[in-house]
Amino acid sequence: PLVLGIESSCDETSVGIVRGEHLLANEVASSVELHARFGGVVPEVASRAHLEAIGPTLRRAIETADIDLSELDAVSVTAGPGLMGSLVVGVAAAKALAACLNKPLYGLNHLVGHVAVDLLDHPDDEPARPIAKPCLALLVSGGHTQLLKVDDITGGITEVGTTIDDAAGEAYDKVARLLGLPYPGGPVIDRAAQQGDPKAIRFPRGLTAGHDMVKHRFDFSFSGLKTAVARWVETRRLSGDEVPLNDVAASFQEAVADVITAKAVAAAQFHGITHMIIGGGVAANSRLRGLLAARTASAGIELRRPRPALCTDNGAMIACLGAQVVKAGLAPSGLTIAANSGLPVETVVLPPAA
Ligand code: ATP
Ligand code: MG
Ligand code: FE
To answer: What reaction does this catalyse (predicted)?
Structure first.
């Protein structure tokens, strides 16, 4: 099926077009620079940027894919989770498009899109590799840190673990800020860490010991780590010593990568799952990718890592999930859908309004 997908859940306005498992276009406009001086995404700023970007992005995607809109089988859009003021822009655009083309409209789950996108990551002349049933999805971004058991991409998803406070990317952004580094912090810390010693400072690994392992075995916590880094840096500054930025970056990054990869592998083993897929902006992190590759390999788990451009928020993932949903013959959500900022991960497709 030929499907156009719209994504606007956070700070990326994006439109993707796919034919089945083949990527035809993926246009992304990010408002990340507008948020830089605030050190994080400002919802009102993101919302206005989506309004300005949605029209041109849609036009560019249609041009790039070189398709006739009348050929579309469906329009799909991120219905949630995400920032309400951002989601509504994409949903309104998708409704307008579906209404004037008289095409079915699907409101989809953003998180599941991050998993589905792996189907698009193959050379043009090769068929897509199917997503194993079940597989474990590790989603790590500025807004999410989740382990999902995926039995069926179009409707069999269960949450295995999540963060009880900050998301992994949020921790990167906050630590960068307290080190005086620019936003977004992930890429900057990743680079600084290359020059540092990951063993220089032993920062805490959240929820990995004692009673926490009973209740939160596969959950994450990063706010204690952030506080530990802040305290360590503050102590240094008070005593008049220079702060070894690269060592702090490397040691912080090691703590994040260690705990995420250890829990992801343990969760897969606990549930008897032999395939893993990663997604989200933090999945671009060099240490996380490296350590996860090593640990999954020694555990006999097959790891799939979509290329970084498909790991961050994009419309192609929503178009791709849309095509799978159309293939599965699920009912369209219809033109009366509403964005849901807290959409549960179990809801892959918004049900038609009663
Ligand atoms: P959502 O949570 O809804 O997916 P988002 O916009 O926060 O939204 P992404 O765009 O996927 O998600 O990811 C952005 C996050 O990824 C930021 O927190 C950024 O610091 C982090 N990030 C990007 N590159 C790296 C990297 N190399 N290492 C660590 N973190 C990174
Ligand atoms: Mg983003
Ligand atoms: Fe995302």
So the answer is: L-threonylcarbamoyladenylate + adenosine(37) in tRNA = N(6)-L-threonylcarbamoyladenosine(37) in tRNA + AMP + H(+)
- Residues 6 or more apart whose Cβ sits within 8 Å of residue 49: 11, 13, 29, 31, 34
Name the amino acid, one letter, at 245.
L
Number of C-beta neighbours around residue 334 at 10 A: 16
Which protein residues touch ligand 1 with a CB less than 6 Å away? Answer: 9-11, 82, 141-144, 169, 172-173, 184-187, 190, 280-282, 284-285, 312-313
d(CA 249, CA 200): 10
Q: What is the DSSP annotation of 91-117?
A: HHHHHHHHHHHT--EEEEEHHHHHHHG
pLDDT of residue 354: 64
pLDDT exceeds 90 at position 212: no
pLDDT single digits (tens) 17-27: 999 999 999 99
* CA gap 49, 20 in Å, rounded: 30
Cα separation, 191 vs 141, whole angstroms: 18
229 belongs to an annotated ligand binding site: no
Instruction: Confirm if 78 and 86 have CB atoms less than 8 A apart.
Output: no
Q: How many CB atoms lie within 10 A of CB 354?
A: 4
